[in-house]
Each structure stands twice: as C-alpha cells, then as structure tokens.
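Worked Example 4.2. Consider the chain below.
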Amino acid sequence: MLGLGIWGRGRSYAAWAGASSLALLAVAACAPPSAGTGNNVFAAPRAAPAQVVKPHDGFTLKEVQDFLDPTGSTQDKRPLSGSPGAPSGPVTKYWLLEPTATFSAVSQPPPTLEPLAHSPTATPQAVPSPTPAWTPTAVASPTVVATATATPVQQPLPTHTPTPTPENTPTVTPTATATAVPLAVELLKTLSFGQLVFSVDISPDGATVAAGLGNNRVELMDVESGISVDRLRDHKDTINDVDFSLDGTRMVTASDDENVILWIFQNQWEIDRQLKEHSQPVNAAVFSPDGTLIATASRDRSVALWSVESGLRVERIRGHSQSVNDVAFSPDSVMVATVSSDRGVKLWNVGDGSFVREFKGHLSPVNAVAFSPDGELLATAGDDDIRLWNVSDGTLVRVILGHEDRINDVMFTPDGETLVSASDDNTVRLWKVSDGQAIQTLVQHTSAVKGLGMTDDGKTLVAASRDMTVSIWTFTD
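Applying the procedure from the previous section yields the following structure tokens:
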C-alpha cells in the first residue's frame, strides 16, 4: 500500500535571470507556457493558433502579465464560460523576450506529445468528455460512487543544453521533461453537495469530509456512506477555507463574512469561539503544526495569529499592499509564509511578527503557499506556475509548469518528494519535487478545482470543485 500524506495550507502536521536589454511582445489568444524553468521558459500554444510563438536565438520567453483577472481577487467570482457576463474574445497575453547566456535555441517545430501506450485517449493529457468514462452506482444518499483512472502526463525530452550559470546569478534548476511514471491512484467516489464547493478538508482518521460551500454553509459528510452528518449554518457568506486540527476534535473555518469560527466536537460540532478582527473577507485559516495557534489571512491585507486555547489574537502581521490570499506555518511552527495579490511572497517570525525575507519572482497574484516537511523548501502558486524556493536564502530553486489555468492550492506529501496542485483547468496534478517532473494528472471534475485535503495516513486525497462535488481518491499498490 502506497501511503501519502500532506503538508501545506489547510492542514497541520507535527511530522511533517542576464543581459541589459528587454523587449516586450504582446500575443493574442496565447496561453501561458506549458513547460520550462525560471530562466529557460518557452511556450507552445494550447489551442493551435495560426502562428506559433517560438524562442529566438539568445532569448527566452516568460510571461509578465495576464489581464484575465486584473483585480487579483483571491476568490474567482467571475461568471463561468458561456454564462452572462463571462469574458469574450481573445485574451491578450504579454511575454518578455530576455537575452540569456543559459539558453541556445534550436530551430524546429513545436514538440509533439505521444500518448502513453495504456492511455485511454489519443492525447497526452486526458480532457473531460461529454460522456462520463465511469458508470455511477446508486447508493442511498446524494453520493455518486464511481471508478476512474487518472491519466499520466508524458512530456517531450529537452531539445537544449544549459550552459554554466555566471557565479553571481541565481541558479534555477530546469524542469524535467522525462516520461512520468504514474502513481497508483483510483477514484473512490464523488460526493455531491448541490452548491459550489470552495474549500475542503478531511478528518485525520479519514471518516469525515468537511466542505465549505458558496451558500454560507459548512457541510460534513460521512465518507463511507456519503450521507450528510451535519450542516453548520453560522457563517453569512461563502466559506473560503476549512481546516481540521491534528487530533480531529477542532475545526476552523474562514468566510467572506469577515468572520473566523473555531469549532469543537462534543457529540456534535459546536461553536467554541468566533475570531473577529478582520475588516474584509477572510481567505484562509490554518492550525499551526503544534496545535497552539491559528493563522488567518484576509483581503484587509493582514494576517492574524490567534491562541487556540484562549481565542485571543496574539499577533497582527501587516506588510502586503493587497489581499493576503494564503498563509502557511513552517513545520516547527516558528515562522509563517504569506502570499498576496500584490505578487509578494514573504516570511515572518511567529513570536513577534517581524519580517524575515521576501521571495521575488512571481509576475501575477499568488494564490497558495506550502512548506516542505523538512522546512527547507517553500512552494508558491500563482497563475499557472508553481515556484520552489530555498527558505534559508530566498533563492528560486525551480519553476514547475504544466497547468493550463490559475492554480488555487498546492501541498507537499510528507516525504517531501511530491507536490499536489489544484487548478481552474479542472485538474489535480502530481509533481516530482526533485526535478519538477509531471507524475500524474487526475481528471474527474468539469469545473475549477478550488482546494485539496488529505488524511494523516496519506491514503486518501480529496479535491473540491465548483462543479458542486468533492472527489475522493485513494492511493493503492
């Protein structure tokens, strides 16, 4: 049995580029890069436009701005494609042409991805079909029981050879493009909630799923039966985050109603305390690994630290110029990392709220953050890329590309070898931390995947989607 666990937002675990000239190129209806590194990024279009953008000799491409969501709002409240008010026409993407000594262009057509021999489709990545690839089994509940096979992603081999990096230039490790080896992942079942699902967590013992819904409700479902066991209606707006404590006896929820609620289980879930300090919607709320603190992040541009025991605010952290979209504790509970719509990633001391360092490089709002289990790496996600940073000196280690839309959540597995990410491209993806290799793509949802959760034993993964469902995946031999 292959067991994976999670270290990142929404979960607390105790065990766990250079020349001087630049040129700007605007390209209509192009998507962000699908593979590359921080200093060696090149792109192939998603939908086969008339002209392919290719790297030029001595230059690389990287995205500098995406006006699809200029407000940088942490919650994607835009109408769904095709609905009234939805954006229309081509989206203009901007790309930076940057001279570099670390890239040699090779004149050749864009790479062709060959499907894996056992892939159920003729494309290298599964695309949701109008006809489900699974047969639902009726049960005495709103739950749909299904089986599905996650599709691994095969990527082209590199067509360039990096040259030595100058001594004073930060080194960025290229993202690997070797053929991925899939993990054994199966879809256990899908729980239907009848409302947009914005956040999710699963209890440490794997018995209960808590979903934060768009109708102001937190709903808890029994995993085995798929039956709703409780509905918490004390919030007055969308539930943006939900997190179980390590022992499963407490839960914290954050909402657009500017309120944070700490719940305690005593035969049933009851309000323990309401944490009211923020003046705008609260985007994230998480327990510290040692269980003594709660960190909350808000659109009021601040982070608050709370004592679980007393419910009192013990620290207030300010330093971002726009909404703070996510917050994560270090494994030793000594530091917190924050990410913001101002494109910033910052590290702070928990004890006195003092600033430690900033990680610079994101070119769009940053939505998610997570520490590696050993505390040495920090993963941040914005737009369609994941960046790995060295916590001790703030240097960029690696850029991981592959998602086709904004990334909403990211987490490490407890061994520190795998990253899991959720995106508006309707997929959940698994990545190898050591080289950025795409391991596997889980395709089940028909709308944006907003959040992730995993059991303490690492055997069960949950994903929340705007298609009103939560998918439950199991890792097997």
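The mean pLDDT is 73. The radius of gyration is 21 Å. Compare this with Example 4.1 before moving on.
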